[in-house]
Amino acid sequence: MILEAQESVCAALEAVDGAGKFKEDAWTRPGGGGGISRVLQDGAVFEKAGVNISVVYGVMPPEAYRAAKAAADDQKPGPVPFFAAGISSVLHPKNPFAPTLHFNYRYFETDAPKDTPGAPRQWWFGGGTDLTPAYVFEEDVKHFHSHRGERRGLGGIFFDDLNDYDQEMLLSFATECANSVVPAYIPIIEKRKDTPFNESQKAWQQLRRGRYVEFNLVYDRGTTFGLKTGGRIESILVSLPLSARWEYDHKPEEGSEEWKLLDACINPKEWI
User: Fold this and answer.
1) Chain Cα centroid distance, residue 32
2) Residue 183: pLDDT above 50?
3) Which contacts qualify for 171-176: CB closer than 8 Å, 24 or more apart?
4) Which element (helix H / strand E) includes 101?
5) In which element (H, E) is residue 27 found?
6) What tens digit of pLDDT does each residue of 65-95 get?
7) Would you give the DSSP letter of residue 147?
8) Range of the domain at 100
9) Which residues pair with 82 in a beta bridge?
10) 147 is catalytic
11) DSSP H or E run through 205
12) C-alpha span between 168 and 186 (Å, rounded)
């Protein structure tokens, strides 16, 4: 499933970009497993696009277990044997009117910690797809779909610790979600990629990219899990944009298009 999803997403992105091509790196993890990272940089449409898959296993420390499982028990002791397979992607377009997209779909299994023999194996699915624009186009958000007191973007679909149906049914659900990425996102890119923009609008996009960097490095559970389990740094940080900007205490003018985006991040709403 993850190989097919990576192939179809990369093919669609190359087609809409028209110039950029994905570079592929196959890697192995010293503790067990490995993956395939594909990255497109400095294309005609995408500043940076990463689509990664991984199948890893081994033993993770308690802090990695807490990052992997939303409902993790803080008291769970000792290293935890695990298996994880998933696909993860972040797509950063050049045009400030074209939104960033993130998606991730994954499957986990964990054995009991080494000091609790005989406990049953746990398994679950998790994932999501979310849109992070610099400018709000409500029709785009409808089509598609607490850092600094802001949300990272305008929402999407998210689920975790999903194991209340059989594995085949949940795999089918996760596969359907992954297969929905291209039809949900590519029409928005085709609509926005050639929209004229000025320097101030590009600067605002870069400021929002700065927020994206902050969120991914400080709060993102996938980043934490990868770092705590000895993952490949280049693949973990492929989610970061090629460029970003920070200005001290920047506040957009109330009522401006930039303010509308910030207001939507601070005060979330139902888009559909």
Assistant:
1) 23
2) yes
3) 171/1, 171/107, 171/125, 173/125, 174/1, 174/105, 174/107, 174/125, 174/127, 175/1, 175/5
4) strand 100-110
5) strand 23-28
6) 766 766 655 555 567 888 999 999 999 999 9
7) B
8) 2-266
9) 58, 110
10) no
11) helix 199-218
12) 28
- On whether residue 272 sits in a domain, the answer given is no
Assigned domain for 271 exists: no
Element (H, E) at 206: helix 199-218
Q: Which helix (H) or strand (E) holds 109?
A: strand 100-110
Number of domains the chain is built from:
1
Has this prediction a pTM greater than 0.85? yes
Of 92, 102, 145, 147, catalytic: 102
Does residue 136 lie in a domain region?
A: yes
Please report whether residue 134 resides in a domain. Answer: yes
d(CA 207, CA 204): 5
Q: What share of the chain is helix, strand, coil (3-state, %, to 5)?
A: 35, 30, 35
The domain spanning residue 25 has which CATH number? 3.40.1500.10
Residue type, 90: V
